[in-house]
Protein backbone atom coordinates (compact mmCIF):
# COMPACT_ATOMS: atom_id res chain seq x y z
CA UNK A 1 0.00 0.00 0.00
CA UNK A 2 1.02 3.61 -0.20
CA UNK A 3 3.59 4.81 2.30
CA UNK A 4 3.72 8.58 2.76
CA UNK A 5 5.60 9.57 5.91
CA UNK A 6 5.69 13.22 6.83
CA UNK A 7 7.80 14.45 9.71
CA UNK A 8 6.60 17.34 11.82
CA UNK A 9 7.61 18.86 15.10
CA UNK A 10 5.29 20.40 17.64
CA UNK A 11 5.83 23.30 20.05
CA UNK A 12 4.61 21.10 22.92
CA UNK A 13 7.29 18.50 22.21
CA UNK A 14 11.02 18.95 22.71
CA UNK A 15 12.86 20.00 19.57
CA UNK A 16 14.67 16.66 19.20
CA UNK A 17 11.43 14.60 19.12
CA UNK A 18 9.46 14.29 15.89
CA UNK A 19 6.31 12.38 15.06
CA UNK A 20 5.63 10.58 11.82
CA UNK A 21 2.16 10.69 10.32
CA UNK A 22 0.86 8.28 7.73
CA UNK A 23 -1.90 8.78 5.19
CA UNK A 24 -3.61 6.62 2.57
CA UNK A 25 -6.51 7.00 0.21
CA UNK A 26 -9.80 5.56 1.42
CA UNK A 27 -10.63 2.77 -1.02
CA UNK A 28 -14.37 3.30 -0.58
CA UNK A 29 -13.84 6.57 -2.51
CA UNK A 30 -16.35 8.49 -0.46
CA UNK A 31 -16.50 12.20 -1.14
CA UNK A 32 -15.64 14.73 1.54
CA UNK A 33 -18.67 17.04 1.79
CA UNK A 34 -16.56 20.12 2.52
CA UNK A 35 -13.78 19.80 -0.05
CA UNK A 36 -15.51 17.58 -2.65
CA UNK A 37 -12.33 15.50 -2.70
CA UNK A 38 -11.73 11.84 -1.88
CA UNK A 39 -11.39 11.27 1.85
CA UNK A 40 -8.10 10.02 3.20
CA UNK A 41 -7.24 7.75 6.09
CA UNK A 42 -4.75 8.99 8.65
CA UNK A 43 -2.23 7.26 10.94
CA UNK A 44 -3.72 4.18 12.69
CA UNK A 45 -6.65 3.82 10.30
CA UNK A 46 -4.34 3.94 7.26
CA UNK A 47 -2.13 1.17 8.62
CA UNK A 48 -5.13 -0.95 9.70
CA UNK A 49 -6.67 -0.74 6.23
CA UNK A 50 -3.34 -1.57 4.61
CA UNK A 51 -2.84 -4.65 6.81
CA UNK A 52 -6.38 -5.86 6.08
CA UNK A 53 -5.92 -5.40 2.32
CA UNK A 54 -2.59 -7.23 2.32
CA UNK A 55 -3.96 -10.20 4.30
CA UNK A 56 -7.08 -10.57 2.12
CA UNK A 57 -5.16 -10.42 -1.17
CA UNK A 58 -4.52 -13.80 -2.81
CA UNK A 59 -1.42 -14.69 -4.78
CA UNK A 60 -1.67 -13.54 -8.39
CA UNK A 61 -4.28 -10.82 -7.77
CA UNK A 62 -1.75 -7.99 -7.99
CA UNK A 63 -0.28 -7.64 -11.46
CA UNK A 64 3.49 -8.17 -11.83
CA UNK A 65 3.77 -9.21 -8.14
CA UNK A 66 2.58 -12.84 -8.08
CA UNK A 67 3.70 -13.50 -4.48
CA UNK A 68 2.05 -10.39 -2.96
CA UNK A 69 -0.56 -11.03 -0.27
CA UNK A 70 -1.43 -13.56 2.37
CA UNK A 71 -3.25 -16.09 0.19
CA UNK A 72 -5.47 -16.77 3.20
CA UNK A 73 -8.75 -17.33 1.37
CA UNK A 74 -7.11 -19.95 -0.86
CA UNK A 75 -6.00 -21.85 2.27
CA UNK A 76 -9.54 -22.00 3.67
CA UNK A 77 -10.42 -25.00 1.50
CA UNK A 78 -7.78 -27.19 3.14
CA UNK A 79 -8.63 -29.57 5.97
CA UNK A 80 -8.42 -27.51 9.12
CA UNK A 81 -6.41 -28.59 12.13
CA UNK A 82 -3.67 -27.26 14.40
CA UNK A 83 -1.10 -27.38 11.61
CA UNK A 84 -3.36 -25.44 9.26
CA UNK A 85 -3.90 -22.74 11.91
CA UNK A 86 -0.14 -22.43 12.35
CA UNK A 87 0.35 -22.28 8.57
CA UNK A 88 -2.27 -19.52 8.13
CA UNK A 89 -0.78 -17.59 11.05
CA UNK A 90 2.70 -17.89 9.54
CA UNK A 91 1.45 -16.80 6.11
CA UNK A 92 -0.20 -13.70 7.61
CA UNK A 93 2.96 -12.79 9.54
CA UNK A 94 5.12 -13.28 6.46
CA UNK A 95 2.99 -11.14 4.18
CA UNK A 96 2.72 -8.29 6.69
CA UNK A 97 6.46 -8.29 7.44
CA UNK A 98 7.33 -8.28 3.73
CA UNK A 99 4.80 -5.68 2.57
CA UNK A 100 4.08 -3.32 5.46
CA UNK A 101 7.18 -1.57 6.86
CA UNK A 102 5.15 0.54 9.32
CA UNK A 103 4.20 -2.48 11.50
CA UNK A 104 6.22 -3.53 14.58
CA UNK A 105 5.69 -6.18 17.29
CA UNK A 106 3.36 -8.36 15.25
CA UNK A 107 1.15 -11.05 16.84
CA UNK A 108 -1.41 -13.17 14.98
CA UNK A 109 -4.07 -15.34 16.63
CA UNK A 110 -6.20 -17.76 14.56
CA UNK A 111 -9.34 -19.31 16.10
CA UNK A 112 -11.64 -21.69 14.27
CA UNK A 113 -15.44 -21.51 14.18
CA UNK A 114 -15.83 -24.72 12.21
CA UNK A 115 -18.81 -26.03 14.15
CA UNK A 116 -20.97 -22.95 13.69
CA UNK A 117 -20.23 -21.41 10.33
CA UNK A 118 -17.01 -22.83 8.84
CA UNK A 119 -15.00 -19.66 9.33
CA UNK A 120 -11.79 -18.52 10.97
CA UNK A 121 -11.47 -15.57 13.32
CA UNK A 122 -8.12 -13.85 12.86
CA UNK A 123 -6.90 -11.24 15.33
CA UNK A 124 -3.81 -9.25 14.37
CA UNK A 125 -2.12 -7.13 17.04
CA UNK A 126 0.74 -4.76 16.30
CA UNK A 127 2.20 -1.34 16.95
CA UNK A 128 3.14 1.20 14.35
CA UNK A 129 6.36 3.15 14.08
CA UNK A 130 6.78 5.91 16.68
CA UNK A 131 3.69 4.81 18.63
CA UNK A 132 3.68 2.54 21.68
CA UNK A 133 -0.11 2.03 21.56
CA UNK A 134 -1.20 -1.45 20.40
CA UNK A 135 -3.57 -1.72 17.44
CA UNK A 136 -5.91 -4.66 16.86
CA UNK A 137 -7.40 -5.74 13.53
CA UNK A 138 -10.02 -8.49 13.61
CA UNK A 139 -11.02 -10.40 10.48
CA UNK A 140 -13.40 -13.25 9.81
CA UNK A 141 -12.28 -15.50 6.97
CA UNK A 142 -15.13 -17.48 5.42
CA UNK A 143 -15.27 -20.02 2.65
CA UNK A 144 -17.13 -18.75 -0.39
CA UNK A 145 -18.45 -21.30 -2.83
Descriptive account of the structure:
It is a single chain. The protein is an alpha+beta fold. The protein has one domain (6-142): Roll (Nuclear Transport Factor 2, Chain: A). Helix content is 25%, strand content 28%. The strands form 3 sheets. Strands 5-6-7 form a 3-stranded antiparallel β-sheet, covered by helices on one side. A two-stranded antiparallel ribbon has the order 1-2. Strand 5 and strand 6 (119-128) form a beta hairpin. The radius of gyration is 18 Å and the shape is globular. It starts with 5 loop residues before the first strand and ends with a strand. The model is unreliable at 9-18 (pLDDT under 50).
> What proportion of the residues form beta strands (DSSP E)?
25-35%
Q: Helix share of residues?
A: 10-25%
> What count of structural domains?
1
- SSE arrangement, N to C: EEEEHHHEEE
Based on helices, strands and strand pairing, what is the structural class? alpha+beta
Amino acid sequence: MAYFPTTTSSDALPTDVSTTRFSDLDLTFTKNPLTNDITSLKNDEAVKRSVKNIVLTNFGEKKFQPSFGGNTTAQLFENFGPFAAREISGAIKRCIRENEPRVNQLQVLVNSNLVDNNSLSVTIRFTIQNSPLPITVSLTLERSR
